[in-house]
Design a protein that fits this description.
Keywords: Glycosidase, Hydrolase. The active site is at residue 364. Helix content is 41%, strand content 16%. The strands form 5 sheets. An 8-stranded parallel β-barrel has the order 2-3-4-5-6-8-13-14, surrounded by 4 helices. By secondary structure, it is of the alpha/beta class. The protein is built from 15 helices and 17 strands. Helix 3 (57-70) packs parallel to helix 5 (95-110), helix 8 (168-175) packs antiparallel against helix 9 (187-211) and helix 13 (342-354) packs parallel to helix 14 (385-403). Bound molecules: 6-O-phosphono-beta-D-glucopyranose. Residues 16, 19, 165-166, 222, 295, 335, 364, 368, 414, 421-422, 424, 428 line the site of 6-O-phosphono-beta-D-glucopyranose.
Length: 463
């Protein structure tokens, strides 16, 4: 069967500034929380590889954009690093950063690759973290000013903007589970950070719409459906609570303008409501997005709690449900994530039925694999058929959703070229293009990159 996608479908990939640019302390950029954390605890980064050099995009962007074209991209997302553009978080704009991002944007447009720009990819400038991150009103306003600065500088050419990538990740990784700096474990503070991020987002949307630049603004959310273990009432309730916390906490306010009532009740009951004003709620209500980006990697499976949590343990969402390891599930063993393709269909149908069928696209989906060298063929490139199969099997479900009326406008893979992945550094490779760290960041297109070109030029594939 031939799977053909709608006309003008976006085929491309996503990356982020901090994970690809490198040049961390070059041309006036100042540290983000990642640079700072690495100086304090390098042992928490895989193989001790930190954020300083990443994949050298800062210097090789022209070659990279040519490779985007070669691998069929009609669009590509990256992010503007706040700590590069406004190194102190507030105040002076760095002219060298303006020059760099101008060159990247212009080159992409010249090569026929539409730039999608994100404004925050887990990368709080350290100076802003010192002021309290998104717990602080000053930082929320500084972010909105940074966003508006970007719109004014680049909005004549960039017509697809995104305020945040996976805003729940810094909340859970930084304030609940000790995975990212600032390594706080405190649910009440996590809720405050989530609220502050939502408000910062809404202020950026307001600024963008106010400028009337004739483009679209959205946010990128990692939506992982919460599948209950069974139809037992207790399992269904567990899944509902997980869904409220991990999906709807951001999805509802950015698309519908309001937080889910059940979530507000839950937080009130446990005395975790954040500090806010009525004016904040109005700002959130009045500034909803034009387009949604959905990152999907793995499903969340949930069951009712088996044991009571220790009464002295700090509250975490898992006090309300247990994560469920479904027997015989298909796994990506390198990343430790389940592969469940149908979820992409379920997400699309949920948006169609419960979120006014708003325009969205898959903004990340992908497979991180360790030791890809093992798959190098005699012609010297990586024969990553597993990645091609992974993409196809997800696209089949996406195609079904579109044929049933879902308003999906594109598919972006994570990622274009192998990049630095936070604490996992270069352990798992996701790219259509290999980056050889032992040979001057040499780029080599993988089998998936060649296949992606055909996929895009045929606007679909045969399976
Ligand atoms: C997404 C992020 O969560 O997943 C990316 O937006 C990240 O920044 C990607 O790199 C893959 O996850 P990981 O943890 O393997 O890097």
């Amino acid at each position: 069967m031939k799977y053909t996608f709608p006309e003008n479908f976006w085929w491309g990939s996503a990356a982020s500034g901090p994970q690809t640019e490198g040049a961390a302390d070059v041309d006036g950029r100042k540290p983000s929380i990642w640079d700072y954390w690495y100086t304090k605890e390098p042992g928490r980064f895989f193989n001790g590889v930190g954020p300083a050099n990443t994949s050298n995009f800062y210097y090789q962007y022209k070659e990279d954009i040519a490779l985007m074209k070669e691998t069929g991209h009609n669009s590509f997302r990256t992010s503007i690093q706040w700590s590069r553009l406004i190194p102190d978080g507030i105040g002076e704009v760095n002219p060298k950063a303006v020059d760099f991002y101008n060159r990247v944007i212009d080159e992409m447009i010249a090569q026929g690759v539409t730039p999608f720009m994100n404004l925050y990819h887990f990368d709080m400038p350290m100076s802003m973290q010192e002021k309290g991150g998104f717990e602080s009103r000053e930082v929320i306003d500084a972010y909105a000013t940074f966003a508006e600065t970007c719109f004014k500088l680049f909005g004549d050419r960039v017509k697809h903007w995104f305020t945040f990538n996976e805003p729940i990740v810094p909340v859970e990784a930084g304030y609940l589970y000790d995975m990212h700096y600032p390594n706080v474990v405190d649910f009440k503070r996590a809720v405050q950070v989530a609220f502050g991020t939502t408000l910062a987002h809404a202020k950026a949307v307001k600024a963008y719409h106010g400028l009337k630049q004739d483009g679209k603004i959205g946010i990128i959310l990692n939506l992982t459906p919460s599948y209950p273990r069974s139809q037992n009432e207790a399992d269904l309730r567990a899944a509902h609570l997980a869904d409220l916390i991990f999906n709807r906490s951001f999805l509802d306010p950015v698309t519908l303008g309001e937080f889910p009532k059940d979530l507000v009740e839950l937080l009130r009951e446990k005395n975790f409501l954040p500090e806010y004003t009525e004016e904040d709620l109005v700002t959130i209500k009045e500034n909803i997005i034009d387009i949604l980006g959905v990152n999907y990697y793995q499903p969340r499976r949930v069951k009712a709690k088996e044991y009571m949590p220790h009464p002295d343990a700090p509250f975490v969402p898992e006090h309300l449900f247990d994560n469920y390891e479904m027997p015989y599930r298909k796994m990506n063993p390198y990343r430790g994530w389940e592969i469940y393709e149908k979820a992409i269909y379920d997400i699309a149908i949920n948006i169609r039925d419960n979120y006014n069928n708003m325009p969205f696209f898959i903004s990340e989906n992908g497979m991180g694999v360790e030791g890809e060298d093992h798959y190098r063929n005699h012609e010297g490139y990586i024969e990553d058929t597993y990645r091609i199969d992974f993409i196809k099997s997800h696209l089949q479900w996406l195609h079904k959703a579109i044929s049933e009326g879902s308003n999906c406008q594109g598919y972006h893979l994570w990622t274009f070229m192998d990049c630095w992945s936070w604490a996992n550094a270069y352990k798992n490779r996701y790219g259509l293009v290999e980056v050889n760290l032992d040979d001057n960041y040499k780029r080599t297109v993988k089998a998936s990159g060649k296949w992606y070109k055909t996929l895009a030029s045929e606007n679909g594939f045969e399976a």
